[in-house]
UniProtKB/TrEMBL annotation:
<comment type="similarity">
    <text>Belongs to the methyltransferase superfamily.</text>
</comment>
<protein>
    <recommendedName>
        <fullName>Methyltransferase domain-containing protein</fullName>
    </recommendedName>
</protein>
<dbReference type="Pfam" id="PF13847">
    <property type="entry name" value="Methyltransf_31"/>
</dbReference>
<dbReference type="InterPro" id="IPR025714">
    <property type="entry name" value="Methyltranfer_dom"/>
</dbReference>
<keyword id="KW-0489">Methyltransferase</keyword>
<dbReference type="InterPro" id="IPR051419">
    <property type="entry name" value="Lys/N-term_MeTrsfase_sf"/>
</dbReference>
<dbReference type="InterPro" id="IPR029063">
    <property type="entry name" value="SAM-dependent_MTases_sf"/>
</dbReference>
<feature type="domain" description="Methyltransferase">
    <location>
        <begin position="48"/>
        <end position="167"/>
    </location>
</feature>
<keyword id="KW-0808">Transferase</keyword>
Length: 221
């Protein structure tokens, strides 16, 4: 599940089987997670500047466009995926729907990007919020899962601003995921990082969680 060709094939087949575009949601849609995401944007206000939000591994989820639409503060939402097929489908869909944001200065973009190379595109300390809905879980279930997922986590911590947050939505038990996140934060020198978890709820018999890492110290110092 970490191969670009596999995701291209998945989204190509999904779109060809349904001529009318329909968002594909891993785990759950925006309604289930908006109360975890939107309050962070309200408290992270930076006067005279847009808040930069990354939907990492967006696929064809409606999450990014919903954040763009509903944020009362100006945001720049980047929906990024390794699959150019998913990126094209989402770009075409949003253009066709002509979604209007709450704040007219908000911006949304769709980008083909490998999440193991975030800093080559963003540099350091540039993002206010990263949302990972199932991307890390998909990597962990792949052949080189632990190594790749660890690399992605380090990339996320590097490109976040101080006081920025990473949200991971996952079905992994907190006993495993919290230890992994705390260890990675310490390895990056984030002695003042907050790592926490909240329960999202149960879907089809599976319990899902929201893991949050919030930075309070520059990883590059």
């Amino acid at each position: 599940m970490d191969k670009k060709s596999a995701w291209d094939r998945f989204y190509s087949e999904t779109s060809s089987n349904n001529p009318n575009f329909k968002n594909f949601e891993w785990f759950f849609g925006f309604d289930a997670v908006q109360d975890f995401i939107m309050p962070l944007l309200q408290t992270a206000s930076r006067p005279h500047s847009h808040l930069h939000v990354l939907d990492m591994g967006c696929g064809t989820s409606a999450l990014g466009p919903c954040v763009y639409r509903d944020s009362v503060l100006p945001v720049r939402v980047t929906c990024a995926d390794i699959s150019p097929v998913a990126v094209r489908l989402m770009r075409e869909h949003v253009q066709a729907e002509a979604i209007q944001p709450h704040d007219v200065s908000s911006h949304i973009e769709f980008l083909e990007l490998d999440c193991t190379q975030l800093d080559t595109y963003y540099g350091s300390n540039n993002l206010d919020l990263i949302v990972d809905k199932g991307t890390t879980d998909a990597l962990l279930r792949s052949k080189e899962g632990t190594e790749k997922a660890g690399l992605v986590l380090k990339q996320c911590l590097r490109v976040l601003r101080t006081s920025g947050s990473l949200l991971q939505f996952s079905d992994e038990d907190p006993d495993a995921r919290l230890v992994w996140l705390e260890t990675a934060a310490q390895d990056q020198g984030l002695v003042a990082a907050d790592v926490g978890v909240q329960e999202v709820g149960v879907l089809r018999g599976v319990c899902y969680y929201c893991y949050q890492v919030t930075l309070h110290q520059d990883v590059n110092k």
